[in-house]
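Exam revision sheet. Question 4 asks you to relate a sequence to its structure. Input first:
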Amino acid sequence: MPTYVKVYEKLYTMIADGTTFPVGTHLPAEPKLAAMLGVSRMTLRQALELLIEDGLLLKMQGKGNFVIDRNKPMVSSLEHLGSPVYKCSQLVIDDMEMEFHIEPPNDHELELFKRPTAITVAVDRWYRSKGKLIAYTLSLIPIEVISKLEVNLNFKDQLLKMLESDIYNYAARSHIVIQPTSVGKFISDKYIMSQTKNVILLSENLYGEDDFAPLVCNKHYMLPQCCSIEINTIK
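Answer key, structure tokens:
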């Protein structure tokens, strides 16, 4: 058995028994933990990655590894309409920054919208937990949808409410594609989400009843270590 698997099993037991490392515990720093277990840091990291993959640990950049409550029920998942950022985030989002601008649509946006439109409303949203940027969303909306939903762009709170909740109540269905990307590391030339790693991209189109043209096109970028994507299926 590889050494890192033995370390994985030992740490698994220490976490599962709920006494050595109970839920919410911040594990010791890697050098200290490696010394405790009598292994190299490389071996320890391999074991930690497995524990993260198996949902026992949450790795927070710059802060370390934390024990997750595996028995905590999932209150939402992607089979129901709702903001993927809030549904998938493993951290509490306590701050959100929003900006928007109006521009003529380019060829790509017209292809996305599948309808003619004179104006695109582009909305940037940055989501933070305890000051750390964990997600970013770019929303593209034809001006006709803004008018249909009676959103006054002079009031940013109306636009935010529409994008975060109202549109999910109004829409009949969504289509989501999930993939890794490095593009999201540099968010709107304003913030850097990740210096070194890819982020998770959820491309989401929201549709009305019997409508082939999307109401809103969203691109949600999330840090992999801060999100958990759950999809339930039935036969």
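Marking note for examiners. The chain has seven helices and ten strands.
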